[in-house]
Amino acid sequence: MKDKVLRTIQKYKLIDNKDKLVVAVSGGTDSICMLDILNHLKKEKCFAIIVAHLNHMLRKEADKDEQYVRDYCEKNEIEFYAKSIDVKKLANTNKIGTEEAGRLARYEFFDEVLKKTKSTKIAIAHNKNDKVETVLMHVLRGSGIEGLRGIEPKRGNIIRPLIECERTQIEKYCKENQLNPRMDKTNLENIYNRNKIRNIVIPYIQEEFNPNIVQTIDRLSDIVTLEDEYMQKQTQKVYHELVIAEKQKEIVMDLKGFNLQETVIKSRLIRYIIKRLFGNVASIEKVHIDDVVKLCNNNIGNKYLMPNKNVKILVNNHKIYIIAIS
Questions:
Q1: pTM for this model (two decimals)
Q2: Which of 52, 165, 171, 326 sits at a 20 to 30 Å CA gap from 299?
């Protein structure tokens, strides 16, 4: 198991010499496995670790989870940071789901610890099963190619050393090393969509269609990732050929050159530009992109679309203006 994680680290260049990692540890099977392996590898690979634990205050066992992680760190002389946040209250205040509120709170806390300790990266314990569950969730929601990539081994300063490990392997490691991780019983409750996919959908597919569905979808995700990265490079190349002006809140592109592109490149260009302006494309859906392509093809001057209140797309004087509205 340690060798498998080490190969993943080397394959994706997750950890460099002298890195200082904030290791996100809930106390559950995945995170305590990751912590234990990184703790064994740190001297060999010349990196340092500290542990961050967020108490969500959702379960009566939450304080025991925190104490379990604290005890492991004290025993192994690892720097430990903990914080308690009423996630349910946070969700109600911001009118978002409890899962989303918890995720936002966790990453905000991990980032706080990263800055406070002058660390370089944050290690999250997502595994291969998590990746496959994410792909299936995206499929059910109506995802494009990007959603089929699932969870990336590395994104920004976030790394996932267990991403090529299956949950059964992780559970076996914990048992063999007598780690006795904490059990979050809510993972067994089919309240959230992810739990339904984990506990109902995947077992059903394994029994009725394909016992190796986790490996199958993981391979699909890897293939999609390679092809998507190639298309991203092609999109960036075309963008630099067509862009006329780029400002903080406005990008201008050549209309004729845009219309000569294949539909797939047109769609990707629009998404790429929106992401350059806003940092994400969460509010732009396929129907919006189709409308923009149609607007450009019609080539009628001084016409515009507003897919949402934050962006205006104008066709005028043989140019496309994508404008961020304050």
A1: 0.87
A2: 326
